[in-house]
Amino acid sequence: MATTRKQTEEVIPEQPKGLFQKLHMAKQHIGKVAKNATNPHFKKTYADINALLETVEPILLSYGLILLQPVKGNTVFTIITDIDSGDSVESFMDIPLNIVDPQKTLACITYFRRGTLQSLLSLQASTTTELKLQSRVLNRPLTKNDSRTL
User: Fold this and answer.
1) 10 — phi, psi (to 5°)?
2) Nearest to 35 by CA among 147, 123, 140
3) Is the pLDDT confidence value at 25 over 90?
4) In the prediction, which pLDDT does 12 show?
5) Mapped to the 3 state alphabet, what secondary structure does the chain carry?
6) Which of 74, 88, 102, 126 is the most exposed place for a label (fewest CB within 10 A)?
7) 79-100, pLDDT tens digit by residue?
8) More confident: 140 or 48
9) Residue 74 falls within a domain, yes or no?
10) Would you say residue 150 lies in a domain?
11) How confident is the model at residue 40 (pLDDT cuts 50, 70, 90)?
12) Average pLDDT of 60-86?
């Protein structure tokens, strides 16, 4: 007598559909961005463009979202596009017309890329110490008097 085994199907969670559902899911995974640079003039720390991209781009890509930051004319754009539907959201800033030095123009573009990306995704930046503390707090069990939400 021969026996047959019923093959079990792997259950794959349904992927979010639509640009805003994908953005919603991606934002839940992004968290805060580590401040990794210091502005010597103001002596303040901030997350530079590379830290922002290293944090958000892999997560966006995992949800089928592509991030582009073109300069069109005199405007710096941050565009997030759903590769399935072609729908997109964008943030942009105009480069001041009085900047004629190429180095200052590129610095302005980098600054605006960072600003439009942070604005579009409502990103928060934290120091490494704050991120470690956040990780410890979020990984501990909730208590009855805890104000955190799940």
Assistant:
1) -70, 130
2) 123
3) yes
4) 56
5) CCCCCCCCCCCCCCCCCCHHHHHHHHHHHHCCEECCEEECCCCEEECCHHHHHHHHHHHHHHCCEEEECCEECCEEEEEEEECCCCCEEEEEEECCCCCCCHHHHHHHHHHHHHHHHHHHHCCCEECHHHHHHHHHHHHCCCCCCCCCCC
6) 102
7) 999 999 999 999 999 999 999 9
8) 48
9) yes
10) no
11) confident
12) 97
Distance CA 30, CA 43 (A): 26
Domain that holds residue 125: 19-131
Neighbours of 150 (CB within 10 A): 3
- What is the gyration radius of the CA atoms in the chain, in angstroms? 21
pTM of the entire predicted model:
0.73
- Residue matched to tokens 């928060």: 124
Total domains, the chain: 1
